[in-house]
Design a protein that fits this description.
By secondary structure, this protein is an alpha+beta fold. The chain folds into seven domains: 28-139, no CATH class; 145-222, Alpha-Beta Plaits (2-Layer Sandwich), CATH 3.30.70; 224-325, no CATH class; 327-390, no CATH class; 403-614, Endonuclease/exonuclease/phosphatase (Deoxyribonuclease I, Chain A); 626-685, no CATH class; 686-761, no CATH class. The chain is 35% helix and 18% strand. It contains 20 helices and 26 strands. The strands form eight sheets. A six-stranded mixed sheet has the order 17-18-19-20-22-21. Strand 3 and strand 4 (111-116) form a beta hairpin. Helix 10 (361-371) packs antiparallel against helix 11 (373-390), helix 16 packs antiparallel against helix 17 (651-671) and helix 18 (690-709) packs antiparallel against helix 19 (712-744). The longest helix is centred in the C-terminal third of the chain and has 33 residues, at 712-744. It is extended, with a radius of gyration of 38 Å. The model is unreliable at 1-64, 310-330 and 384-396 (pLDDT under 50).
């Protein structure tokens, strides 16, 4: 079947890269190469006004400014006597008398913590008698952990179950998994956080960009950690938490005092009021300008801490949050860069003109080089938005009336054995005819009337082609929703072998129209198995577009609310802006049948065709009947009939005999005719000689016998029969095609048999 790829990333707005070095904060080991620095220089060595004794203190502090921490766990359990601080200190000094200790205690996790400032004592502190602390102790050595994001994991699949964790551990060395949950609603998300300690396996999964879970592939990417501001969920202000808050409690939704959001009567997001900025959103919304400021403040603190601690990794943040807070200041360097940009534009005016009218990529690249990526992104969003709204050539077929395009489409159908075909922008009118060999077509032509020109508006139109052998029925859209004149949708119901219904819709949404949310919601409610294919002009970074438009935002929300999936990969489908406009969307129930997605390279139009494959999605096919006459049986039956009586010879007796003979022939033909059924209407059935049929029957019997006996003699006989059958079939086919070519050498235009031969060849 034609198809598309699962991509619905759900990531926090503020993120930094999954660098394994970032995990050093909680993976420290007490060894000479990995020390934990807990104290800092209290005195400035460069301050020449300090007194001499200050210098001495500073030198002492510098020499002993590192603390090394070791953790141990008992092989059974630490006795209560070791909770006595004096007893614990005396016990350790008895065993390790010459060791310098700073701190020794047993924490709430029943772990023994030992801290020393002498690096030379680490080796001795790691070695303890086998009966130390009554039962012996073992050092806790934490390894680096690597975090993964598993995308589009069906919410009904319990990936945190014991069985799932065991399989993931065995196949990919994944130590643990955690399903993400939306805090505001408690709704499970398709995003799963996974952790592994195996760096090699981690790199393999990241490079492959997917893992196989059962028979399904799940997209994998490095986990990106979000930065959340310190917000009090009592008074909703930033900079502190609710434990230390003495302010009055406010509602997260309406900002009123005296109740929580759980008891708030307002449920419509349009009526929300933020307690911090007064806008129409919840006080914890990521779009809140005050929250964004708080995030930026926390970023600065983290960056300062990173510099202070000499951390050797770079923190990477989301472009969205950066762009929203960039107050670009134009100084002298900015002015120089603008001049450079103008010079670059004049160097190649033809490319600049093409970029303004066609594809803005060239201009955006120059802006990025001279003025920065953020400004390029902002300008790009406006340029691409205008292009999508004004360009009338954003089409798939660019009129299928062209016979060359019909031939190209027909070739694709044959090459990829397409079962279901979706066409957008057919440009067909009601009176136009369209046929594609092997497909049953369902159309919805554009009939919108233009009052100014007094003609139907040009363009538009959708069509679905379903393989003739598949049982299908057109969906009456008005039974599903109140259709408006802008909707260009055609739908078909297909019966599956398990008696369920598969609903397929071809949907074209022009750049100037709004997405019909009602259609998507109602279709998903009615059909458990739903597939929507079409040029939707919904643009979003969630499916790898360069920016986001209003229809893209609407579709994002619908996908999340209705548990629908985009099957596209990151390959652009629209050539001119290299965006992904042609989407395939499926319901969660269809996801388990999804196999593969491809964007095909074709010159049919300025959109590339897409091919999606589903496996084990078996349709209920129409069964076709055919018949074959056994002429030997016919002769025997006819010869067994009694002779006709013609006495006395007269007109009446002749008519009676003729009628009787006709009846006998019809009866013998009926009794000697074999009727059989088959699924594929396009499959050729070639009558073969009885000798070959006998060989086929003998081979089948021998195969059954060999399966039961597994005898070497039976195997030898089976091989001999197979070889003879193959030889006879090759000889028969060669003779048959030779005879057909000889027959066609005397080609007669009026002969239907000759035309059938040509069609078969």
């Amino acid at each position: 079947m034609p198809s598309f790829q699962i991509n619905q990333p759900m990531l926090p707005i503020n993120m930094h890269s999954n660098h394994f070095a970032a995990n050093n904060n909680y993976a420290n080991q007490a060894n000479p190469n990995n020390s934990i620095e807990t104290s800092k220089n209290l005195y400035n060595q460069d301050n020449h006004q300090e007194l001499n004794y200050d210098h001495q203190i500073n030198q002492i502090s510098t020499q002993s400014n590192k603390t090394f921490t070791l953790k141990f766990v008992s092989k059974k359990k630490f006795s209560d006597k070791f909770r006595d601080y004096y007893f614990l200190e005396d016990y350790i000094k008895t065993i390790k008398s010459n060791i310098s200790l700073l701190t020794v205690y047993i924490n709430k996790k029943d772990e023994l913590i030992i801290k020393t400032d002498n690096q030379e004592h680490l080796t001795e502190l790691k070695n303890w008698p086998t009966n130390a602390f009554d039962f012996g102790i073992t050092e806790i050595v934490k390894t680096k952990k690597f975090y993964l994001a598993l995308h589009n994991v069906d919410v009904r699949f319990d990936i945190e179950s014991v069985n799932a964790k065991e399989r993931l551990k065995k196949e990919y060395d994944i130590d643990n998994t955690l399903r993400m949950i939306k805090k505001s609603s408690g709704q499970k998300l398709e995003l799963v956080k996974a952790v592994t300690s195996n760096e090699e396996k981690f790199n393999q999964m990241i490079n492959a960009k997917k893992i196989k879970v059962g028979s399904c592939y799940i997209r994998v990417s490095p986990w990106k950690f979000g930065i959340t501001p310190d917000q009090c969920f009592k008074c909703l202000e930033f900079g502190h938490n609710s434990v230390n808050c003495n302010n009055q409690e406010k509602c997260l939704r309406c900002s009123e005092i005296g109740h929580t959001h759980k008891k708030c009567k307002i449920s419509d997001p349009e009526k929300f009021k933020c307690a911090n900025c007064g806008e129409k959103h919840a006080a914890c919304s990521k779009s809140c300008p005050e929250l964004i400021k708080a995030v930026e403040q926390k970023k600065r603190k983290l960056d300062q801490k990173m510099i202070k601690n000499n951390e050797q990794f770079t923190r990477v943040y989301s472009n969205v949050s950066k762009a929203s807070n960039d107050n670009t200041t134009f100084n002298q360097n900015s002015l120089v860069n603008i001049v450079k940009l103008i010079i670059d534009l004049f160097k190649n005016p033809s490319k600049a003109t093409a970029a303004v009218n066609d594809d803005p990529t060239h201009i955006l690249s120059l802006i990025s080089q001279n003025l920065g990526q953020n400004l390029s992104n902002l300008i790009g969003s406006h340029m691409f938005r205008n292009l999508d709204q004004d360009d009338p050539n954003m089409i798939n077929c660019q009129s299928i009336k062209n016979q060359i395009k019909i031939t190209q489409i027909q070739n694709l159908i044959s090459q990829y054995e397409v079962d279901i075909l979706s066409l957008n922008e057919t440009f067909l009118k009601t009176q136009d005819e369209l046929t594609l060999k092997g497909l049953k077509l369902y159309r919805e032509d554009r009939v919108v009337y233009n009052s100014r020109t007094k003609r139907s508006k040009r363009g538009g139109g959708v069509a679905l082609g379903i393989r003739e052998t598949i049982i299908s029925n057109k969906i009456i859209l008005s039974d599903l929703i109140d259709k408006n004149e802008e909707d260009e949708i055609v739908g078909v119901e297909i019966e599956l072998e398990n008696k369920e219904i598969l609903a397929i819709f071809s949907y074209y949404l022009s750049p100037s129209s709004s997405l019909n949310s009602e259609f998507l919601v109602e279709a998903n409610k009615k059909y458990k198995n739903l597939l929507i294919i079409g040029d939707l002009n919904c643009i979003s970074q969630n499916w790898h577009c360069k920016y986001k438009n209003q229809n893209g935002r609407t579709l994002e929300q619908i996908l999340e609310d209705q548990n629908l999936y985009v099957l596209n990969d990151d390959t652009p489908t629209y050539k001119r802006s290299e965006n992904i406009l042609d989407l395939t969307i499926c319901s969660s129930n269809l996801l388990k049948f999804f196999s593969d997605f491809k964007v095909l390279n074709s010159q049919i139009s300025d959109h590339n065709p897409t091919l999606t494959t589903f496996k084990k999605l078996n349709t209920k096919n129409e069964r076709h009947k055919s018949s074959k006459i056994d002429w030997d049986k016919f002769r025997k039956l006819l010869n067994s009939e009694q002779e006709l009586e013609l006495n006395p010879l007269s007109k009446d007796s002749l008519e009676k005999a003729a009628s009787t003979l006709t009846g006998r022939i019809q009866s013998c033909l009926s009794n000697s005719t074999i009727i059989f059924e088959y699924k594929r209407a396009n499959r050729l059935f070639i009558p073969v000689p009885k000798a070959i049929l006998d060989l086929i029957h003998t081979k089948r019997k021998m195969r059954k016998l060999f399966k039961k006996s597994q005898s070497a003699d039976h195997k030898k006989t089976l091989n001999a029969i197979s070889y003879k059958l193959s030889k006879e079939m090759k000889k028969f086919k060669a003779t048959k095609i030779k005879n057909e070519f000889q027959e066609l050498s005397n080609f007669n235009q009026g002969s239907s048999s000759h035309w059938k031969m040509l069609d078969k060849l």
